[in-house]
């Protein structure tokens, strides 16, 4: 039995509940799948990475996006107080298959604010380089500087997060699509706090959304990485769109370029 699988079994056995409203990294036994989504395969979304994070006591899960052989984009809030990250790529299943890497090299945007979730972006570095076969694991290109989503634009999100608030666990990669919500309108709906480093996406009636455990995962428009799953108030609730870090914001995009050269 490989080391990564042993870690999975240990924390599934011993971790307790971690119920939160914002999309924070969750302990594995509180994970599951995207709300209102469908099973998919890593071959369809080969840029998706699974991150198992260890803080010295507990294990948590987040997602990430492969942008090069050495770098994964994720959410800064996933990296808070973390000591070690175990990365799995190239597998539809979060607990087995694909390739595994261990790293303690990561960074968060220097302006990240844990209270407001502004600048919620981080970089995980795999120093030895990940093996990307182009079928099960490959990079995704990012949107350019200044790029923003447009109202109603389709945003595709993937991950291994919760099927509902506190819902059951799934090992299978899930996908759903949600429409972008204009920023001014999103601020009205959520009572403010949505900055130009963020964008919102979700249906007025709810029903589809990312959820706890999807944090850090990709939000894609067309074929480009446009966002990072950041936070939300509950999961898939009516009039409560999910919030994503906006990759195209110049300060977010510059940080990624500074850390990765991409």
How would you characterize the overall build of this protein?
The chain is α+β, with helices and mostly antiparallel strands and 262 residues long. The protein has one domain: Trypsin-like serine proteases (Thrombin, subunit H, Beta Barrel), CATH 2.40.10. The protein contains four helices and 15 strands. The chain has helices at 3-14, 76-79, 183-190, 250-260; strands spanning 26-27, 38-39, 48-54, 59-66, 71-74, 84-89, 99-103, 105-108, 122-125, 154-159, 174-181, 198-201, 218-221, 224-231, 242-246. The strands form two sheets. Strands 1, 3, 4, 5, 6, 7, 8 and 9 form an eight-stranded antiparallel beta sheet that branches. A hairpin with a 2-residue loop joins strand 13 and strand 14 (224-231). The longest helix has 12 residues, at 3-14. One of its GO terms (molecular function) is serine-type endopeptidase activity. Fibrinolytic activity; shows preferential cleavage of Arg-Gly bonds in all three fibrinogen chains. Contact with the caterpillars causes severe bleeding, due the anticoagulant effect of the protein. Residues 1-21 form the signal peptide. Keywords: Disulfide bond, Fibrinolytic toxin, Hemostasis impairing toxin, Hydrolase, Protease, Serine protease, Signal, Toxin. This is Trypsin Blo t 3.
């Amino acid at each position: 039995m490989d080391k990564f699988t042993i870690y999975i079994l240990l924390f599934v056995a011993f971790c307790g509940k971690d119920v939160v409203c914002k999309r924070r990294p969750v302990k594995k036994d509180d994970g599951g799948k995207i709300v209102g989504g469908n099973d998919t395969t890593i071959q369809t979304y080969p840029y998706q990475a699974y991150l198992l994070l260890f803080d010295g006591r507990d294990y948590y899960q987040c997602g990430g996006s492969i942008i090069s052989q050495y770098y994964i984009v994720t959410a800064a809030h996933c990296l808070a107080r973390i000591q070690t990250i175990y990365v799995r790529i190239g597998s539809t299943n979060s607990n087995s298959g694909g390739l595994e890497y261990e790293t303690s090299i990561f960074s968060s945007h220097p302006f990240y604010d844990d209270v407001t979730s502004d600048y919620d972006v981080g970089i995980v570095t795999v120093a030895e380089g990940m093996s990307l076969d182009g079928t099960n694991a490959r990079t995704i290109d990012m949107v350019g500087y200044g790029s923003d989503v447009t109202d109603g634009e389709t945003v595709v999100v993937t991950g291994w997060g919760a099927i509902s608030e506190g819902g059951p666990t799934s090992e299978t990669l899930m996908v759903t699509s949600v429409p972008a919500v204009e920023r001014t309108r999103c601020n009205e709906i959520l009572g403010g706090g949505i900055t130009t480093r963020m964008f919102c996406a979700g249906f007025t009636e709810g029903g589809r959304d990312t959820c706890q455990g999807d944090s850090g995962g990709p939000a894609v428009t067309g074929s480009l990485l446009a966002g990072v799953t950041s936070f939300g108030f509950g999961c898939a609730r009516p009039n409560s769109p999910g919030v994503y870090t906006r990759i195209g914001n110049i300060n977010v995009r510059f940080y990624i370029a500074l850390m990765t050269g991409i």
